[in-house]
Amino acid sequence: FQGQGQPNFLLFNDWKEAFTTLESKIDFYHSQIDAILICVQDALHKEVCCTFAKLKFAMLLEKPMATTIS
pTM for this one? Predict the structure, then answer.
C-alpha cells in the first residue's frame, strides 16, 4: 500500500489464498482497498464472485458472470 514502502496493490496467483488473506485482516483491508478485480477462467466466475461477495468489497468481474443460467 502507498506510503508503506510497498506497491499500492495486492496480487495473488490463487483466489483461495487471496480470500483467506483478505478475510484474516478484513478491517485493515476494508480501509485500504477500493475494489477487487476477479480475473479467472470463465467457469470459475460464479464461485469466486459469490465467495468474495461475503467480504463486501466492490468487485470488477470479467464477463460472462457464469457459464450457465443456473
Answer: 0.77
